[in-house]
Structure formats: C-alpha cells, structure tokens
Amino acid sequence: MTDRAGVLVVAKAPVPGLAKTRLTPAATPEQAAEVAAASLLDTLDAVLSVPRVRRVVAMTGDLEKAAQATELRRVLRWFDVIPQRGNNFAERLVNAHRDVADLPVVQIGMDTPQVTPWLLGSAIAAAHTGDAALGLAEDGGWWALGLKDPLHAMALQHVPMSQPDTGSRTLDALHDLGLHVSPLPMLSDVDTIDDARRVAASVPGSRFAAAVAAISTAGQPIS
Fold first, then answer.
1. Tens-digit pLDDT profile for residues 106-150
2. Which of 19, 59, 84, 212 is deepest in the core (most CB within 10 A)?
3. Cis (ω within 30 of 0) for the bond into 160?
4. Could you tell me the maximum CA-CA distance found in the chain, to the nearest angstrom?
5. Is 5-211 in CATH node 3.40.50.1580?
C-alpha cells in the first residue's frame, strides 16, 4: 500500500540552555528542555497514529545532549530523520519539503503538542483536495503547512519567520503562486510560560502536561 502523503516534523534537539529559553526564569534551562522534549515526543506520537504516510523528521542540533535523548532515539527509529539544510529557517523549511520527495507534504513543528492524528489527517485531506492547507497560530505565525506539490514551498523563501505577521505573509505568498489554500484550525504555539500552561490544560495526561507541571514558580507547581 503506497503512502498518500509525507508528514514532516521540523525539530530542534531539546538541549538545555538552547531549547524553550523563553520559559525561563519560571523554568530552569533543564526544565525548559524537558518541556521541549515532551512537546516533540507528543507530536511524534500523533504522527505515528496517522496511517499510510511517510514520517519524516528534519532535525537540527545535538540529540546526544538533549533532554529525553534515549526516548527520542527510540521513537525516531520509526521516522526517516534528515538534517536541516540552509542558511536561515525559511531556507531550511523549503529544503525539507523538497527532501520528502514526490508526495504531498504536511509540515508541522514541535511547538503544538496538542496536535491530534485527526488534525493531521484533515491537513492531508485539505492538501489533496486543493493546492495547500495552512494552520495559523494565535501568535501570528503558523503551525502547519500542507502542500500538494512540495516544490511550492518556494513560497516561503522570502517570508520573514517568527514575526507577528508571518502567518498572513505566508498566506499571501501562497496566493501569489496562484494556489488555493484551505484553512486549518488555529492553534497556540508554546513560546511563553503562559502558552505552556494553557496548552498543558488542553492535553491532560500527556507528556507535555507532566513536564509543565514539574516547573515551579515560587515553590508552587504550575498546573
């Protein structure tokens, strides 16, 4: 049975001091890395539950120094792990889409641990039905991009990333290519401690919720 799409996770190794630094000082660097690792692991679990897809992780950073390195290596055995290539984040995204090969691609990051197999399946269906699918994030960015033709990721080349208007500018860039873009539900990325609290409350029992609960502020656990 052939794969119907590629699901591409763009990830950074959750190394203490380098991962989720905006969670400090509420979290220690080690706790922030644990939150990042939990977010990535929950995301990978969701991808593993989507049938008939090629599962790809475009990784950067030193996994050997990462929080939850053993568990990450165990789960990543079920994925094709490729290195990120490029001089900036937009270029790395474009190249990662190209590296998935001749399949429609749904690309997500590791900052939406609340993502579900159903949401990923909806993104795949939308990319098949139209030309593209885009899930905007509450901070003005986007959490998911689905493309029927992965070469259309070229639209990202000149879009500034991690800006309040990244989502709207990505949508404009896709429209400039003449693509029909289906909207996906809006989700919250995890950038700040308030984001982490809110997302953790939406996924009780998850690795992510447990990692956030382990952070203490003034000696009181966040829940």
1. 999 999 999 999 999 999 999 888 899 999 999 999 999 999 999
2. 212
3. no
4. 54
5. no
Q: Residue ranges per domain, the chain? A: 5-211
CA 125 to chain CA mean position, Å: 18
Helix (H) / strand (E) containing 116 = none
Q: Check: pTM over 0.70? Answer yes or no.
A: yes
Kindly give, in sequence order, each residue whose CB lies less than 8 Å from that of residue 39, ignoring residues fewer than 6 positions away: 110, 111, 112, 113, 190, 208, 211
The alpha-carbon radius of gyration of the chain (Å, integer) is 17
Q: What order of strands is seen across the sheet that includes strand 5-12? A: 80-83, 53-60, 5-12, 105-108, 142-147, 132-137, 181-187
DSSP at 60: E
